[in-house]
Design the sequence.
């Protein structure tokens, strides 16, 4: 009863928010926060162990009865939708205000509520037809949010690419749900593990949901969409919306039987996404593109966990599958939290400097200490370093991988490379985030744009602080979160119901807390000692340069040049170098660009070929009667030939 | 009570004995070159002096410039405390502690690179870039080595993983780990700890602007890291855990000394490799670890 009311309230509040968004910003904020709070309450209630909520109405939509259900898997993702949806709404109040964006601020508020509402409904719908409707509405509202700043051509191009890729994925989902409905005779969704004939549908779902999840090589739309969207939209897209694709994979690999090779394929794709996503991230010089590629990497980490979980489930429900799956689920939350935090931080930088180009920044910590500190916090968390939360989930995934390898089972053939890939990913992500945080916030300002930078206000700071607090909580008390993780695990695979944490989470939490304390204490102690001995400020030594300038600093491009060289086979960097010549050189420059390889080297040429073929076909249609007669005769002759060959 | 004493003993080993290693290495180098060389305890004198000195901060540096070395030092010490010291055992042991150890070293790397980039110096930028890039290859080798150890022991607890040791692939693993030790501890042929001022350095160039107590933390942390890798290497090769207590202590000490002397000899007898050779060397170390892994894998099923 309470659940009915909570969900109904959430839906009504968000609908009201969507309607009021354009004109009444304060009311909108209140309604959106109340709606997301209701969603969060419902999700935590379910995760707290209450029974699955199942609600059928007499109301019909598309001649199908509306059927909503909220089980632990849906609730896990719904909690993330609610948290980031609420935080982004607060952030947008200062980041995208009416005063600066009179044309798009109201639209942005309305679509934001629509996006949150329909992501919630995707998670709630238990009917294939309604799932598709909610999915489409969610995809479209995301499109309108990405293109809020539609006067910029890059934004329109990014939105167009997103729309095209998203619909290619939706096409896969149409195939998936209609095949499912055709084989089961009903659009109703639910556990169908005892229908082995449904297993091959997993491959269709993997494509459809994989596009949304930004899985390599289906991630082509993700970098430009996340980079060009307003930052609060990038945050919810990167932190939450791509998780909807993952939700689909988790949901239907739990409800439907999966084919034998599913775990192998998911694990391989995950490892590829992780390593290549991190390599692409390291190579970027656009702050938000770097963060976007890093999402591909983190989805890879989650897919590695899911892949090990699938392998574990297929090999007799082993404990190692359970622990890796737990790591994947926890990483869904973790990545949602710290990626949103980082995009909010990037938005704050963009707001202050007006550019996303890292080589124009530098030294921003002085004018933006809060943003710098919070971005550094997020960087440590996302690089999976102890004592923060990213480490907890990656540690669980590692435990699963190592146990699987030590079991000497046949799966070790794929587990061992995946483990090494995860290690390499960690080192690459660390390099990428040292680069991002240091080039933006440390050193000296590289251009004039940084001179006028200003710190963001409290409306932007508070959501970031809240997300950082949530990260800290998971980092220091993972054992408190464990009962929540257990619910979706049990819903995914009933054989993994109940029981103790598969890993010494309490010990790890204690170690993390002790480490956090020691780190803080050591930093303070060293600072006090240094101050007691006498602190003196002097120009950076730089091997004796008397007057170093900001232009002598290492740039982001030079920082990553070494590793980019190793990955040149996939990154395909385009360089143009004009050397200074003669005694009075006129100009010399060095331009480097990292293309989106899959898009520009595979999809692009393919697209060109299709366009060329279409253009050729169009030329054959000039309205000349004799041509058409010739086509008719040729067509008839071809059909005749077919018939004759068929009879032979 | 005795557990507290044991903890203090372990802490003392890591904190007090670690600065001995660079002294021994320098002694070996001096002996090979026919010089008298600095005293074995030179690093202790340096640390004591630095701890009392004032600090010169770059005008660009944020508080992170001093926090960086502090965090890195704590991270290395915490990693060291997770590593069992032969019969002295370990302070804390749990499933997956080995992954925490690897990631604590990564945290130290993050903080060192962060502090290096605080100053806006191109030299330190170069050093930090090389450090984080080469770490990608070193990390692959380390993870493979950990996989090897966990496969041959069937455990994910450091104190169990290091007991059986001396698997068939021990020699292969030792070569791989020794190379990683040289790379991670800024030793020839990857780096030359004698010169701080060259364009060609990795780790050493990152600490150019540090001075006073923070620099002492950097130097002490580096010596602990060297001891950590030596102890890990010895225990991965020699079945220290199976020996009687006194023999185990002796084996550990002798082993660490042998590793230290070997580092000194490598440093005396080889030149620093050209930079384009470094990835090749690290890849070779990775391959050695992979072969050790294959041996451990086969050993398990046979």
Sequence:
């Amino acid at each position: 009863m309470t659940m009915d009311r909570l969900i109904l309230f959430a839906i009504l509040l968000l609908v009201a928010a969507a309607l009021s968004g354009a004109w009444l910003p304060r009311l909108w904020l209140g309604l959106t926060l109340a709606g997301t709070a209701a969603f969060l309450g419902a999700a935590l209630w379910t995760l707290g162990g209450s029974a699955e909520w199942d609600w059928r109405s007499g109301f019909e939509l598309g001649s199908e009865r509306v059927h909503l259900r909220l089980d632990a898997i849906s609730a896990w993702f719904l909690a993330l939708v609610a948290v980031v949806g609420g935080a982004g709404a607060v952030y947008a109040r200062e980041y995208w205000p009416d005063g600066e964006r009179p044309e798009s601020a109201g639209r942005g508020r309305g679509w934001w509520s629509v996006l949150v509402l329909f992501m919630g409904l995707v998670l709630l719908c238990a009917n294939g037809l309604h799932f598709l409707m909610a999915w489409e509405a969610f995809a479209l509202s995301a499109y309108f949010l990405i293109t809020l700043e539609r006067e910029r051509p890059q934004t329109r191009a990014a939105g167009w690419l997103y729309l095209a890729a998203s619909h290619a994925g939706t096409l896969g989902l149409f195939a998936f749900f209609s095949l499912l409905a055709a084989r089961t005779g009903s659009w109703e969704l639910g556990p169908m593990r005892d229908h082995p004939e449904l297993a091959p549908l997993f491959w269709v779902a993997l494509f459809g949901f994989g596009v949304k999840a930004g899985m390599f090589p289906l991630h082509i739309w993700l970098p430009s969409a996340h980079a060009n969207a307003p930052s609060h939209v990038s945050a919810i897209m990167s932190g939450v919306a791509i998780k909807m694709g993952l939700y689909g994979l988790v949901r239907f690999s739990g409800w439907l039987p999966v084919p034998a090779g599913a775990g192998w394929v998911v694990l391989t794709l995950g490892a590829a996404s992780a390593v290549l996503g991190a390599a692409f991230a390291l190579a970027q010089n656009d702050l938000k593109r770097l963060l976007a590629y890093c999402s591909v990497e983190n989805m890879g980490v989650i897919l590695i966990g899911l892949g090990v979980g699938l392998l574990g489930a297929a090999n007799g429900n082993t404990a190692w599958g359970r622990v890796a799956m737990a790591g994947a689920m926890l990483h869904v939350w973790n990545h949602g939290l710290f990626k949103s935090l980082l995009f909010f931080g990037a938005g704050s930088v963009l707001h202050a400097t007006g550019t996303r180009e890292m080589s124009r920044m530098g030294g921003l910590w002085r004018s933006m200490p809060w943003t710098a500190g919070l971005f550094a916090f997020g960087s440590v968390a996302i690089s999976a370093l102890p004592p923060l939360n990213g480490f907890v989930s990656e540690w669980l995934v590692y435990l699963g991988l190592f146990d699987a390898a030590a079991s000497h089972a046949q799966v070790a053939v794929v587990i061992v490379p995946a483990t090494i890939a995860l290690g390499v990913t960690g080192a690459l992500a660390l390099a990428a985030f040292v680069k991002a945080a240091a080039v933006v916030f440390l050193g000296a300002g590289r251009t004039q744009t940084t001179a006028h930078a200003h710190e963001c206000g409290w409306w932007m700071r508070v959501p970031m602080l809240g997300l950082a607090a949530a990260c800290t909580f998971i980092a220091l008390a993972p054992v408190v979160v464990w009962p929540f993780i257990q619910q979706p695990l049990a819903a995914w695979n009933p054989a993994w119901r109940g029981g103790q944490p598969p890993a010494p989470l309490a010990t790890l939490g204690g170690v993390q807390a002790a480490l956090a304390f020691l780190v803080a204490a050591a930093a303070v102690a060293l600072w006090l000692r240094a101050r007691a001995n006498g602190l003196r400020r002097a120009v950076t030594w730089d091997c004796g340069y008397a007057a170093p300038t900001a232009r002598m600093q290492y740039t982001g491009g030079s920082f990553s040049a070494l590793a980019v060289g190793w990955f040149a086979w996939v990154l395909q960097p385009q360089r143009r170098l004009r050397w200074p010549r003669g005694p009075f050189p006129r100009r010399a420059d060095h331009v480097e660009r990292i293309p989106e390889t899959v898009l520009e080297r595979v999809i692009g040429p393919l697209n060109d070929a299709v366009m060329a073929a279409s253009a050729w076909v169009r030329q054959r249609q000039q309205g000349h009667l004799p041509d058409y007669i010739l086509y008719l005769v040729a067509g008839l002759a071809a059909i005749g030939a077919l018939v004759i060959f068929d009879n032979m | 009570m005795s557990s507290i004493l044991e903890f203090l003993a372990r802490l003392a080993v890591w904190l007090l004995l670690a600065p001995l290693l660079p002294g021994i290495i320098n002694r070996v180098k001096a002996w090979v070159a026919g010089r008298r060389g600095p005293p074995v305890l030179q690093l202790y004198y340096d640390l004591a002096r630095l701890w009392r000195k004032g600090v010169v901060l770059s005008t660009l540096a944020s508080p992170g410039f001093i926090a960086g070395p502090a965090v890195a030092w704590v991270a290395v010490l915490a990693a060291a405390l997770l590593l069992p010291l032969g019969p002295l055992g370990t302070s804390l042991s749990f499933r997956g502690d080995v992954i925490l150890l690897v990631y604590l070293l990564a945290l130290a790397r993050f903080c060192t690179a962060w502090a290096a980039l605080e100053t806006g110096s191109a030299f330190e930028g170069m050093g930090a870039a090389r450090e984080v890039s080469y770490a990608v290859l070193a990390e692959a080798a380390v993870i493979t080595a950990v996989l090897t150890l966990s496969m041959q022991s069937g455990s994910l607890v450091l104190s169990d993983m290091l007991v059986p040791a001396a698997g068939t692939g021990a020699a292969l693993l030792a070569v791989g780990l020794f190379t990683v030790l040289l790379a991670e501890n800024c030793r020839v042929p990857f780096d030359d700890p004698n010169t701080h001022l060259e364009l060609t350095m990795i780790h050493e160039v990152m600490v150019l602007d540090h001075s006073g107590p923070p620099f002492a933390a950097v130097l002490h942390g580096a010596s602990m890291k060297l001891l950590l890798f030596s102890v890990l290497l010895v225990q991965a090769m020699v079945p220290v855990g199976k020996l009687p207590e006194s023999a185990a202590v002796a084996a550990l000490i002798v082993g660490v000394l042998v590793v230290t002397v070997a580092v000194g000899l490598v440093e005396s007898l080889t030149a620093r490799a050209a930079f384009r050779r470094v990835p090749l060397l690290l890849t070779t170390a990775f391959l050695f670890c992979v072969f050790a892994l294959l041996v451990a894998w086969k050993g398990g099923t046979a």
In short: The beta strands of chain B are 55-58. Residues 169 and 289 of chain B are 9 Å apart (CA to CA). Residues 122-153 of chain B form the longest helix (32 residues).
